[in-house]
Amino acid sequence: METKHITHEQRAKILTEALPYIQKYHNKVIVIKYGGSAMLHEELKRQVMGDIALLHLVGIRVVLVHGGGSEISDLLNRMGKRTEFIDGLRVTDKETAEVVQMVLAGKINKGLVALMETFGRHAIGLSGLDGRMIQVRQMDERLGFVGEITAIDPKPVQTVLENGYIPILSTIGCDAQGDVYNINADTAAARLAAALGAESLLSMSDIPGLLRDVKDEASLISRVALEEVPALVEQGIISGGMIPKVDCCVEALRGGVRRVFILDGRVPHSILIEVLTDAGIGTMFWSGCRSL
Predict the structure, then answer these.
(1) Which of 77, 238, 252, 268 is most exposed by smallest CB count within 10 Å?
(2) Which residues of 242-276 are buried (b: 16+ CB within 10 A; e: fewer)?
(3) With contact defined as beta carbons under 8 Å apart, do 34 and 46 qualify?
(4) Each residue's pLDDT tens digit, 210-244
(5) Domain assignments of the chain as residue spans, ordered by start
């Protein structure tokens, strides 16, 4: 619906519908994992930053966790360096780890901070290296500098939130020797959301959510209780690349996050639709033992 065709009554209804959600989330923490097409298209990127600015303006404490796999691959290709993946994870030698740090903690992170400032909201760019926030160990020798998270210290993010800024976090971490590791952004967002005691985790993706039939977007499953996950895996509804995404949802719920959403970042303003409206847009995972 184009804005110019919205009646005054429709505008009032939209604002009225948002009010209880603003009240529910006021002063609560939500973590948004930002990735996929929403990072690659400039108009979508501006809409995501604008959505986050609006949530911050109405008193919701937003933490943005971002990846950047496509930009890493693009730079490696321009350097003439071949990218290899094992089980969906990038094989990361020492030189690749340096590129990952440069792209994630540098170009992408600071670009997002600068873009947020254009919406009148102040942001602070962080990485998992700051304050040894994300501590890791090597996940698999075959993968090189790909990290498995051993501990998360949320204090740097909490300090930024307490001072009224929006934390924007790039997903790199370090081991006890100070070596830098690449980390899966979904995993980092889930662990951080749990450590922060977040109300919700929103994972932006290039799919509508969990589909009962992957060929039919109308088969979206809007709600999944934690205890339903094993059966959905057994039935093959959760399969392939959805398994690690859902594993992260489960980990966040078990860590105390109240709700976890997988939503389609290709849809304009998907964050606002999910957080501030009755309709929602993706799949919500919840513990099944507490009130929604």
Answers:
(1) 77
(2) beebbbbbbbbbebebbbbbbbbbbbebbbbbbbb
(3) no
(4) 999 888 888 999 999 999 999 999 999 998 888 88
(5) 25-286
For residue 4, pLDDT over 60 is answered with no
Q: How many CA atoms lie within 13 A of 25 on its CB side?
A: 26
Comparing CA positions, the residue from 204, 199, 173, 200 lying closest to residue 186 is 204
What is the spatial distance between Cα 200 and Cα 55, in angstroms, rounded to a whole number?
Answer: 13
| Ramachandran quadrant class, 87 (left: phi over 0; alpha: psi -120 to 50; beta: rest) | left
Report the Cα 290 to chain-centroid distance in Å.
23
**All residues at 6 or more sequence positions from 145 whose CB lies less than 8 Å from its CB, including other chains:** 92, 93, 94, 96, 97, 100, 138, 179, 180, 181, 182
Positions marked catalytic: 33, 36, 69, 186, 245
- What contacts 151, CB < 8 A, 6 or more positions away? 134, 135
Is the CB of residue 68 less than 8 Å from the CB of residue 104? Answer: yes
Amino acid occupying residue 288: G
Q: Give the CATH H-level superfamily of domain 25-286.
A: Acetylglutamate kinase-like (3.40.1160.10)
Amino acid at 230: P
Cβ atoms 255, 198 nearer than 8 A: no
